[in-house]
Amino acid sequence: MNTVTNGASTVAEEFKLKIIEERKKNRIINTAPFIIFVILVIAVSVCVDGFFTYNNFISILYQIATPLVLSVGLTFVIILGSIDLSVEGVMGFVGSFIAMLVMNSKNSINLGLLGVAIALCVGSLVGTLTGVLHVKLKIPSFMVTFGMASVMTGFGVLTYMGRPASIRDPAFEYIAQGSLLGIPYLTWFSFVIFAAAFVIQEYTAFGRHIFAIGENEAVLRTTGINVDKTKILVFTWSAFCSSIAGLFGVLRLNRGEVTIGTGYLFTTITAVAVGGTALWGGKGGVLQSLVGVLIVVVIQSAMILQGINPYVQSAVQGILIIAAVSLTVVRGRKIIIK
């Protein structure tokens, strides 16, 4: 019995060291998106009038809040080797639910901060349910999250039954429009979520397990680590981030409706891929996703300042994700050959 236990411990230790060493090697490669970002900012500043201004800088900081929160949630899921397509559905549902629980135009309920907390908890539990369905019923993450997106969109509409509720709580307007040191409150909140994700990723066993699952789930299972629990927690985290993004949407629009998340899924996946997180799992991180978000938002800002057609902007985003995935696939093949 001791021999078996010692053997499992040895395998676990060796695998842990391998993951740490692999991540150290990838840090050099992971600087590429940052270099691209710096070059991009310099090029856009020179070529686009009005880009390198204080007002545009604040505008960019305001724009990154929602995709940054979504990306730090989705990054963990993608590192697992999975995907979460329920982002927009959870956003819309939580946003609609929050609007009905605080001071609003449709009912007399006014739970204030408690209502927000309840909605965020319910949204997070959606992720828990998604994770359970994925790991216990062996449903591919693509299918279970795609279905969950539709379910939550339907529930979101049911919360207000027709016309969306407008929020009448002055605190929401204050938070949405307020700033600290010139930086919007929402951006500060997104930085807090990012910092929490970074600490989890870099300094906890849970963070190491996420990478290990994406690297080689079969080996990790032999070490006695609860892989299923880790996966469920990751999907819960992703749903929590989507719920926070739903709160951001309500704060910005001052009303709750299921469409507040429309378009964010594609933007978030693009940012994560452009940042260098491998879509097959095991490589990447939230810092890379932050850079990816900045790259995507800077490009969007430049195109808006140039008056480029929104449909062309969408096409450019599509090209970005194709290019990013192509590069990571080539990189992955090199690693596999080694």
From TrEMBL:
Give the residue range of the signal peptide.
Answer: none
Q: Name one GO cellular component term.
A: plasma membrane
Q: Which Gene Ontology MF annotations are present?
A: transmembrane transporter activity
* Compartments where located: Cell membrane
Top-rank taxon: Bacteria
Q: Which InterPro entries does the protein's record reference?
A: ABC_transp_permease
Q: Report whether Transmembrane shows up as a keyword of the record.
A: yes
Q: Which UniProt keywords apply?
A: Cell membrane, Membrane, Transmembrane, Transmembrane helix
Q: Where are the transmembrane segments?
A: 32-54, 60-80, 87-105, 111-135, 142-162, 174-200, 232-251, 263-280, 287-305, 311-330
Q: Which Pfam families match?
A: BPD_transp_2
Primary localization = membrane
Q: What is this protein called?
A: ABC transporter permease
Instruction: Supply the source organism for this entry.
Output: Treponema maltophilum ATCC 51939
